[in-house]
């Protein structure tokens, strides 16, 4: 197994765990919505906390799934330039994009920690007034931390791919020089 394959396989269990967490959050939201509709239209009871839980579990699920999306290269990026580049420039472009993505996640992590701490310090509650706002806001620093972790992993993968492409080009140029 090459270094590149080992690095890609290193987070397989974490990927599966985060995928299960995202799916679990989605299921909680769906079942909560069904229960909320049933309570509202059958018994005439409207529980605001159930609606908030539905809303915030989706947010937690989305932020939990940031990392695996980065690893699958399914995050937002510009493919136009990538499609025009060939050879090692294509791999170098991927590496630069990954470094920019990592720097962005670092900044967003730092900002979200400060924002979440300020929500906690001010004791702001959600719209319904049933829970402190920092609880749903914690999804953002958690997601940004996972984004940092996975974008760092992507930098390593892109660097190893770039090195592998250089070796392949050298081998190809040596072979063509012999013919």
Write a structural description:
The protein is mainly α. It has one domain. Helix content is 82%, strand content 0%. The protein has helices spanning 3-9, 12-43, 48-64, 66-71, 79-84, 88-122, 134-137, 139-178. Helix 1 (3-9) runs antiparallel to helix 8 (139-178), helix 3 runs parallel beside helix 8 (139-178) and helix 6 (88-122) runs antiparallel to helix 8. It is elongated, with a radius of gyration of 22 Å. It starts with a helix and ends with a helix.
How many domains comprise the coordinates? 1
DSSP summary, beta strand count: 0
Radius of gyration: 22 Å
Query: Secondary-structure element sequence?
Result: HHHHHHHH
Q: What percent strand?
A: under 5%
Structural class of the helices, strands and pairings? mainly alpha
Domain Tripartite ATP-independent periplasmic transporters DctQ component: 34-156
Family: Belongs to the TRAP transporter small permease family.
GO molecular function: transmembrane transporter activity
Pfam family, one: DctQ
């Amino acid at each position: 197994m090459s270094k590149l394959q080992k690095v890609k396989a290193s987070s397989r269990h974490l990927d599966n765990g985060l995928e299960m967490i995202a799916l679990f959050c989605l299921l909680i939201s769906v079942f909560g919505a069904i229960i909320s509709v049933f309570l509202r239209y059958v018994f005439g009871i409207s529980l605001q906390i159930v609606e908030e839980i539905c809303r915030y579990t989706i947010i937690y699920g989305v932020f939990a799934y940031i990392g695996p999306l980065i690893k699958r290269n399914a995050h937002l990026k510009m493919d136009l330039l990538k499609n025009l580049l060939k050879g090692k420039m294509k791999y170098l472009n991927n590496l630069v994009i990954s470094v920019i993505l990592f720097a962005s996640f670092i900044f967003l992590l730092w900002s979200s920690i400060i924002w979440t701490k300020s929500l906690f310090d001010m004791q702001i509650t959600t719209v319904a007034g049933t829970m402190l706002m920092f609880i749903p806001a914690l999804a953002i620093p958690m997601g940004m931390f996972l984004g940092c972790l996975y974008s760092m992993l992507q930098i390593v993968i892109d660097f190893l791919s770039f090195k592998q492409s250089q070796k392949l080009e050298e081998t190809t140029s040596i072979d063509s020089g012999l013919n």
